[in-house]
Structures are given as structure tokens and as C-alpha cells.
């Protein structure tokens, strides 16, 4: 998997720096609390929310079990509708395909509707290396691009920025990318949005090539679906002569009827809306309407490897709503950059290591970037049991010897031996009880664990001895 934030340290180190930034924490706290409160009200309006949630889970699980069948059906439908399907095993192949398709048009710039898959593979950088400029058109993505920043949230990539910071970015950087910001620009949301519209309008009208992702692909008809709130997606999908969509293979759903479930759960879980303002759907090409050429790049990039894990594959149910980020106490304090991936928060902690194979120190640290409180599972509209997957990934990392301080690893090895030898365990319990008054509340060598905790006080005798004594009384 590409899209790694090169040079990023492991999560604990990156998070420590983020937590020390009071402006960042204030921005995150305000935004996440606002979004999750609105989401809770929107979800409460539906008496059958739990039934929809279960339906979404079952549709996704069924689709993943028969993914090969549905993808081939999708390819046939897209081709019949006038589109061209390309298969990309990894990021390098996907970037090569898209770059060659753009070059074939003779164009040197593209407009993009927000796509996490293209961020995942580092498409913008690949296009830039080929002399092709890629312009982000989502407002938050525009802020990130102009600020030479990185996204920190699935739904609101610039969630870590406040209005004053956005005003400075627009004022200082817009001119280098196209139309400059208006004179006297203030930090009022309406004025900032108007500046973005004016800046992007010339790009929409000039661009001959559009690049998109998709929230869903309907195998039954070959239809792709993008759900968004600003209208930039509609512009990218209809004005260019050539449209290239890069989509993860897990985004397919079998039928239109299946799509009905997700068009109810996604808007409420993401933007707290009953229905997204713009739901764009397209099927191949049509004379006189929309792009004259349509290319669909189906991206694997580690997804089939994740599919092979019976527990971990549920991460592929994700519909990218970001509800888990907005309730996560770890994300709220650390922000998205600490996760070192375009997929931050709880879902990123289980998706990124699987796509990348948990081979780096950063990836190995992500399954531990959680308190296992379970709030993420409670709000997930497709019932991904994120804590269960986190624990499974921790087991995988531990089995490789890739986590934990040496003292922790030694303690775990000692505990393993002790639990395998009941006699030694019983003797140890009696010794620990007899010497309990001598035990320090914070033992040396475990400061990272005990900084916010104290060891529980041991009882006078172990349960084992108590049970033996009480059972003896009744006999």
C-alpha cells in the first residue's frame, strides 16, 4: 500500500506531539463533538436503525464472500454500457494505468472529486512526477492541498484547521494555484466558501479530464455512485470529456435494492443528513450527455490479503462514514496525522495494517492506538467490531515479536510460563499475599503503564486458598 506519510514515527511518538498542541486539540474537540451530536439526532429519527445496520452488515458480508462473482458481473455491465475496466493489483500499477490514460488525452491537468483510494495510492504525486497537475475540488481537500498539508479525517480532511488558518492559506497560496483569493478576505465561512468557488470555477470549465472515486458500485447495472455535499463531484463527473474512476474492489454491491440500505445509513452517519445534497450516479457513457470516455480502475492494493483473514476482513465493510473517528477518545486527542495514513482513527487502525501488512514500526503500533472502549463499534453503520479486530491484530503483532518494551515482553513470557504451571502459580499467589505490604504502587521499569494507574491491592489470601478453606467447611 502506498500513501504512507514518509518519515512518520510510530503512533505513540506522533500522538505525543499532537496531544501537546492546544490549538489542534481545541479544533478537534469542537469539530468531533459537534458532528457526533448531530449524527446521534439524525440516527434517532429512524425506528429501524438497528435493522438497517444489520442489513448493511449482511449485504457487505455476502458480497465479500462472493466478491469474485460480483466483480466479474460489474465488469461485464460497465463494458456493456460503454466503459472500459482496468484491474490494478497494487498502487504502482494503478498509478501507471491512470497516468497513461491521462497522457493519451494529451492533457496536462485533471480535476478530482474527493477520493480516498487515490490518496491511498499517492496518485497526485505520481501524476506530478509525470508532469500532470491534479487539482482537488472538495473544499477540505483544497485547503489541505493549498496548505501543503495532509488530510486528518475521512469526512473532513481539514478538521485540524480553524477558520483563521484557512483564511491565511487561501490568502497566501491560492494565487500560486490559479485565481487568487479576493482582496479583504475574512474568516467568515460564507466568504471562505465563495473564495473557493471562484478559484475552482475556472478549473471546472477548463478541465478535459476528471478523476473520481466512488462510494458504491452496483454490479447489477455497472452504475457508480458518489455521495457528496458541495456539488464539486457533480462538476467533476459531468463536465470533463474523459472520466477516470479509481475504486477499491470492496466498494461493489450486488443490486440496486442493496444500495437503498446504504443511501439511508451513510448520510446520517457521516454528515448527519437524511439525504446527501448531491448523490451522483453514472453508468458507462451516453451520447451528448457527460464524458465521452469512461475508465474504471478496480484497485486491490492489499484488499484480497485482508479478505483472507476471517476476523480482519470485516474492515472491508467500511463505507467511509467517519462515525468511529468522531466518538473515539484517542482520535479526539491525537488527531489524524498521528496514524500515518490516509485512513485515520479506529478504522484506520485496523484497515491500514492489513492493507500494508503490519511490516513497519508504524503499522505495528496502530492496533494499540485504542482504549478498546467499544464506542466505535456502537456507532458503525455496518457493525464492524473494531475492538475485536484490534485485539486480533495485536495478537498478530505480538506473535511476530514486533510490539512492546523488552520489560513487557519479558513479563508476558514469565506470565505464560506461570499460567502453564498451576503449582508454581499457587506458590506465587501465597508469596505475593504474604508480602503485599512491601509492594510498591508503581513498580520500577513499568512507568509507561503505571503513569496513570496504580496496581490493585492484593488480598490477604488468594481465591484459591479461600475456596479450599470454604469448601472444607461444608464437607
TrEMBL record:
Protein name: (4Fe-4S)-binding protein
UniProt keywords, alphabetically: 4Fe-4S, Electron transport, Iron, Iron-sulfur, Metal-binding, Repeat, Transport
Keyword Signal: no
SUPFAM superfamilies the record matches: 4Fe-4S ferredoxins, NagB/RpiA/CoA transferase-like
Stretches assigned to the 4Fe-4S ferredoxin-type domain: 315-384
UniProt cross-references to Pfam families, sorted A to Z: Fer4_8 (PF13183), LUD_dom (PF02589), LutB_C (PF11870)
Residues covered by the LUD domain: 73-286
Molecular function, one GO term: metal ion binding
GO terms, biological process: lactate metabolic process
InterPro entries on file: 4Fe4S_Fe-S-bd, 4Fe4S_Fe_S_CS, FTHF_cligase-like_sf, Helical_ferredxn, LUD_dom, LutB/LldF, LutB_C, NagB/RpiA_transferase-like
Location of the Lactate utilization protein B C-terminal domain: 397-470
Stored PROSITE patterns: 4FE4S_FER_1
